[in-house]
């Protein structure tokens, strides 16, 4: 569609997008993370930009570049991502496409852990803050439309429906990431849009097409 920045149905709107994985350090050379290229989040940010929105793009260490024409806030950990989201300007809509690590390593080391003849290292874990739930449940400053993702490997609709209610977001884009779909790491996505009204099954399509369709829906919802 390629409208000039600032034109289009989302002109004057501010939209926040989270994207990419987070990296949770174990020591200076090691981390735990989710598998995520950041491609779907980047495509969503670009599609919103193309409809005229001002986009704040809070991204973990993704393997695809951030789109041009958006305000990029680069973070590493889930806790930093929450901080960046809290510091962003009030948003009309927020899309949480990041694959946030659910846990961080407690007592991450300042120095590289060395192999040790005395035994294997053990790691402690603590739960990360849930950024989507935190924003969805805000009493003031909640974006008018909050959209989450649910990457599931089984019972996709059921899990996504429960997730929407538990977190308090408006929409969930649910996708089946079980290995046999070949979705993980690919250029296509197959999603179901779960809202209070029900479930829309979208055909399997290119991630850019998913992004364009979502951006259109968001523009419609914001009116
Ligand atoms: N999410 C988030 N902060 C977290 C974990 C998840 O903002 N700490 C967001 C993701 O960006 C996504 C949605 O929540 O939009 C769902 O993530 P998912 O991992 O599917 O849900 P979880 O609640 O972490 O449940 P589980 O991994 O146990 O299925
Ligand atoms: Ca999770």
From TrEMBL:
Binds 1 FMN per subunit. Its EC number is 4.1.1.36, 6.3.2.5. It catalyses: N-[(R)-4-phosphopantothenoyl]-L-cysteine + H(+) = (R)-4'-phosphopantetheine + CO2; (R)-4'-phosphopantothenate + L-cysteine + CTP = N-[(R)-4-phosphopantothenoyl]-L-cysteine + CMP + diphosphate + H(+). It comes from the Bacteria. Keywords: Decarboxylase, Flavoprotein, FMN, Ligase, Lyase, Magnesium, Metal-binding, Multifunctional enzyme. Residues 15-223 are annotated as: Phosphopantothenate--cysteine ligase. The keyword Flavoprotein applies. Pathway: Cofactor biosynthesis; coenzyme A biosynthesis; CoA from (R)-pantothenate: step 3/5; Cofactor biosynthesis; coenzyme A biosynthesis; CoA from (R)-pantothenate: step 2/5. CTP binds at residues 102, 112, 129-132, 149, 163, 167. One of its GO terms (cellular component) is phosphopantothenoylcysteine decarboxylase complex. GO terms for biological process: coenzyme A biosynthetic process; pantothenate catabolic process. Residues 10-220 form the DNA/pantothenate metabolism flavoprotein C-terminal domain. GO terms for molecular function: FMN binding; metal ion binding; phosphopantothenate--cysteine ligase activity; phosphopantothenoylcysteine decarboxylase activity. Its cofactor is Mg(2+); FMN. In the N-terminal section; belongs to the HFCD (homo-oligomeric flavin containing Cys decarboxylase) superfamily. Catalyzes two sequential steps in the biosynthesis of coenzyme A. In the first step cysteine is conjugated to 4'-phosphopantothenate to form 4-phosphopantothenoylcysteine. In the second step the latter compound is decarboxylated to form 4'-phosphopantotheine. This is Coenzyme A biosynthesis bifunctional protein CoaBC. The gene is coaBC.
């Amino acid at each position: 569609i390629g409208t000039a920045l600032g034109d289009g149905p989302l002109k004057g709107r501010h939209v926040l997008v989270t994207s990419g994985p987070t990296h949770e350090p174990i020591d200076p050379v090691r981390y735990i993370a989710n598998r995520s290229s950041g491609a779907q989040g980047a495509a969503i940010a670009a599609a919103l930009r193309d409809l005229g929105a001002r986009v704040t793009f809070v991204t973990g260490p993704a393997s695809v570049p951030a789109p041009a024409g958006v305000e990029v806030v680069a973070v590493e950990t889930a806790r930093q991502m929450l901080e960046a989201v809290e510091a962003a300007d009030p948003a009309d809509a927020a899309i949480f496409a990041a694959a946030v690590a659910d846990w961080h390593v407690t007592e991450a080391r300042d120095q590289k852990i060395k192999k040790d003849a005395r035994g294997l290292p053990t790691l402690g874990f603590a739960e990360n803050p849930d950024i989507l739930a935190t924003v969805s449940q805000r009493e003031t400053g909640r974006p008018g439309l909050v959209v989450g993702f649910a990457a599931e490997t089984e019972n996709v609709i059921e899990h996504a429906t429960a997730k929407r209610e538990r977190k308090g977001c408006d929409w969930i884009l649910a996708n089946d990431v079980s290995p046999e779909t070949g979705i993980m790491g690919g250029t296509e996505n197959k999603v179901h849009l779960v809202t209070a009204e029900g479930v829309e099954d979208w055909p399997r399509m290119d991630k850019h097409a998913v992004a364009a369709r979502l951006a259109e829906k968001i523009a419609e919802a914001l009116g």
